[in-house]
Amino acid sequence: MPQQRKTSEPRKGLLVNITIGFLSIILVVLIYALVTRIIIPRIENQRVDASSHLISEVIQIQVLNGCGVSGIASSFTGKLRRSGFDVVESGNFETFNVQKTFVIDRSGNLENARRVANALGISEENIIREVATGFYLDATVVIGFDYDQLNLQ
Question: What is the pLDDT of residue 37?
Answer without folding.
Answer: 80
